[in-house]
UniProtKB/TrEMBL annotation:
Keywords, ordered alphabetically: DNA-binding, Transcription, Transcription regulation
Origin species: Nocardioides jishulii
Protein name per Swiss-Prot or TrEMBL: IclR family transcriptional regulator
InterPro entries: GAF-like_dom_sf, HTH_MetabolicPath_Reg, Tscrpt_reg_IclR_C, Tscrpt_reg_IclR_N, WH-like_DNA-bd_sf, WH_DNA-bd_sf
SUPFAM superfamilies noted in UniProt: GAF domain-like, Winged helix' DNA-binding domain
Keyword Oxidoreductase among record annotations: no
Domain IclR-ED residues, every copy: 77-256
Species lineage: Bacteria, Bacillati, Actinomycetota, Actinomycetes, Propionibacteriales
One GO molecular-function entry: DNA binding
Single Gene Ontology BP annotation: negative regulation of DNA-templated transcription
Keyword Membrane: no
Domain of life: Bacteria
Amino acid sequence: MPTSDHTPRVSGASSSRKLLHTLLCFTEQRPTWTVADLANELGLATTSAYRYVGLLREVGLLDSAPGTGNTYRVTDLVLGLARACEAAQPPLAEVALPVMTRLRDEIGETVLVARRGGTSAYCVERVESMHPVRLQFDPGQAMDLHAGSLSRVLLSAVPRAERRRYVEGVRPGLPPERLALLSDEALDATLDAGWTQSFEEIDEGIWGCAAAIRLGDGVVAAIGTAAPVFRTDDARRDEIIALIRAAADEIAAALG
């Protein structure tokens, strides 16, 4: 790739968006790209893709992948952005814990709060049921984004193109009824509603529900519960769903 000191100028809002989209193509699932692949992914002319890659190299965000001449990766400079993101995160566990404890006492079931990180949902905090049958989720534990109500609420908030790539990656081996829950229409409906429920998606005999914790237009986390089906008839499920949704709104208000 040419390394002229006279890097072609990129101007205008449209070009700025394309430059940012170029950087956002680099993910955990796809950490390296060629210019040709970036051009194809973003619908750009190859010359434009070269220009954007050149600018990102100029500011130190991209560099050649080791052992390659035409493949690029993000540099360690993005670690500073990741640390800034972490430092700016609201104190979710601290704010949520009193609400979760009260909710656990009301419904008698384990209550979880989770955030998305990359292609996983991570348990941020939990308050366990005192029933003999309990669900074990440790803080920091990673969960699949496509299984269970808590994870699917978080998946629904992922940008559609990224969401589709994730679903395509997990599609093999999933039964049709599970795939139906991961369609654009189903996930969009979950995002619009702000909550969903699950039946035996992770463990046999377990029902769960979860609601989105929103700040502005974004979903920053989700709160949910899970319980054996034998403890939750239709009326009880409706009651728990209403309490979970109210708890999500209460936590969002405290964070905001």
